Amino acid sequence: MTKQALLFIFSLLSLTLPVLLFILRDSEYRKNLFVYFPIGVAVQMLSASVFTSLLFNALSFGWTKYAIVITCSSMLVYFALRWFHMNHVFVNRRILDGRVLLVISILAFIANADNFIILSKQGLFDIEPPYFRPGLVSDPVRNVIIVNALIRGDGSPFLPGSEFSYQLLWYQFAALFAAPFATAQNFRLVSGVTMMQGYLLFFYLFWAVSIMRPGLVLRYRSAVFAFVAVIIAAHADSYNYFIRGCIEADGSCGPTGYRYFVRNFSTELATLASPQHVFFLIPLVIFYATNRLLQDRHRTAPTHRITLFTAMFLSSPIMSAFFLPSYLTYHYVFLATKRRYSRLLPTIFEVIAILIVGVLLFWGTTRTSPLDLFTRPSSAGLVIFPFGMDFQDSIMHLFFSLVQIPRIVIWGFGVTGLVAVLLLLVQLYKCAKGNWISTETYHYTFMVLGTMYLFYFIVTHGEIRRHVVILLSPVIVLLILKLLPSWRKLHRSIMYLGIFWIVLILSVYLHGVYIYAYTMKPSVLTTEIDWNDYACMNKKIFRHHADKPTLAAAGGGLIFPPVMEVTSSFAKPEDAYAHSRMPAGGYLITLRQIEDGASPVESAYELGFKNIIWGPLEDAQWSREEKEAVIGDATALETCGKVSLYRITHPQK
Questions:
Q1: Bond from prior residue into 573 cis (ω within 30 degrees of 0)
Q2: pTM value?
Q3: N or C end: fewer C-beta atoms under 10 angstroms in the chain?
Q4: SS3 state of residue 643
């Protein structure tokens, strides 16, 4: 826990201190602390990632690179905030007092407390006994493997002689802070950066709440109500628990069919398992918040929004592609009135400029085309569900799909989705009486329901659906905040108070189940294997054999072995397939392993491996005949208990 806490504090101070030093030196900036500080931190975070990536080939990771990157990004923050200030970007620049930031910071820490508890429990080979559960099995360990490969300056860690198919900015960002303290095992270091990302996500979510509903902050009781509801309901898997008796978050629920399969990645679970997704969610939340701050006299997309769109596209083009089309279609077509038709064409040109700049920046920082994110095997081959061969079938399918939308929202977002559905039903009841909802509320409703319909009933690829749930998790929270009435109406309404108490009871109970699953539920790591032997071998390879591509078993789908942290080593075929730009030979071999279940041991020499690990995992996953084929009578190079390292001396012909 010490390493995680230190990296959390170190990375957070690296982002916030330069911004504070600049703002606090001038009284004019201090007056607008509530606005300038969050925007400055966001600029610091994104620019540090970009500078780190641009210097990838020019400067190795370490203290020197850290100092240069933080200095350059701090200078960019200085010029960005000066530009904002000199151009009077904000309509009401002093919306709330700077002291509200302190309250938001404390609330964000409380909301992220279970992240600290869970990640500190997932020590992985640093504690006795080792503890690990899904969905913390593949994503976080894979993230550590990629970050370590970036720190070493190697190519793809999943296959020798191959390159990364993409390098998302988050990996560069995490490597910047982990590198000065890097050792043979960096799981805790990367977890510390993950904690910081989760903290910032909640910080910006509450900041957006304060901007979009100032009354929730100015009125003490309503603020407590709103924040408690958001914190508790952020990741409660109500549908699966009560319908199927399990929660998908900890891996106890399996797939439910290709049509309605939903991985319940809520806001906080995305923080735990996929911080590279959170790296997109933060700019998305900032975009929604600054929509209320930026001047928009002509109701078009000004330069400031172009900058935000570009930042989102740069941080994760594949998920931005889900958000941007639906947002732009709605904002620039559905809301186009007669007085705005003359503005539509220039706006389209600005949107095209956004995409061009985003593509160029992505290509410059990652040295690969954004098309790789769509054509890589794990994202390609989308299943398009047919509407039917005749008109009657199409109408029936459309009706069936519309009826299922509330169920899908609850299934995907748990208690948060349940609250959204209940509040939308209340709004429909009000609309029947002539009380129409605001345009902005309609916008959020369109974003959630329209996107869910598109990616659950037309595009039915499971991986894409998972990303959609991640993408919409903060949007649905903001939708709830828009649907909530004022505190006076809320306090006097039996209906709203009933919804609140139902949500509170469900969320507290399910949140307890969630915490139990990651802290007290039995670990997925079998105690029959001495994991310390693998941890010991990890350190020996790090010191003496890190330049030799080493083959190791992927753990039977449970967990990547620790030796993969320090050397090019084969993972599950799907991971090597999706995260590596392979030569033709490696592509065909990997494809054969996916389709026919062929063992990588048979092609170890052809794939470029020089050494091979053999221990209890390999005995369980591979056969003794395969061991003889690649090792023969060779003497072990290194030995740790039952785990040994061998040179491949007799390659399979």
A1: no
A2: 0.86
A3: C
A4: strand
pLDDT at 504 over 50: yes
Phi and psi (nearest 5°) for 181? -115, 15
Q: Which helix (H) or strand (E) holds 8?
A: helix 2-24
Residue 65 exposure: Cα atoms within 13 Å on the Cβ side: 25
Q: What is the dihedral of CA 624, 628, 634, 637, to 10 degrees?
A: -40
Place of tokens 């570009």: 310
Give the helix/strand (H/E) hosting 512. helix 494-519
Spell out the residues 6+ positions from residue 356 whose beta carbon is closer than 8 angstroms to its own. Answer: none
Residue 632, preceding peptide bond in cis (omega within 30° of 0): no
**pLDDT tens digits for 343-388?**
555 666 767 777 787 788 888 777 777 777 666 655 544 444 444 4
Instruction: Label residue 245 left, alpha or beta by phi (over 0 means left) and psi (-120 to 50 means alpha).
Output: left
What local confidence, expressed as pLDDT, does residue 491 receive?
66
Query: 231, 107 in Cβ contact below 8 A?
Result: yes
- Find the mean pLDDT for residues 86-115: 74
Tell me how far CA of residue 512 lies from CA of 201, 508, 509, in angstroms.
Answer: 22, 6, 5
Using the structure block, give the residue that is written with the tokens 């640093």. Answer: 126
Q: How confident is the model at residue 12 (pLDDT cuts 50, 70, 90)?
A: very high
- Alpha-carbon separation of residue 237 from 272, 306, 509 (angstroms): 15, 36, 11
Q: In one letter, which amino acid is 245?
A: G
Under a CB-based contact definition with an 8 Å cutoff, are residues 599 and 180 in contact?
Answer: no
> In b/e form, how buried is each residue of 438-451, taking b as 16+ CB within 10 angstroms?
eeebbbbbbbbbeb
Q: What is the DSSP string of 83-145?
A: HHHHTT-BSSTTSS-THHHHHHHHHHHHHTHHHHHHHHH--SSSSSS----TTSSSHHHHHHH
Query: Quick one: how far is CA 461 from the chain centroid?
Result: 18
Pairing of strands 550-551, 611-614: parallel
Closest CA to 466 of 590, 359, 314, 318: 318
How far is residue 511 CA from its own chain's centroid? 20
Residue pair 302/294 in contact by the 8 Å Cβ criterion: yes
Query: What is the C-alpha to C-alpha distance for residues 272 and 198, in angstroms, rounded to an integer?
Result: 8
pLDDT band at 177 (very low <50, low <70, confident <90, very high): very high
Average pLDDT, the chain: 76
- Determine the pLDDT at residue 381: 43
Q: Is 60 exceeded by the pLDDT of residue 260? A: no
Name the DSSP class of 153: T
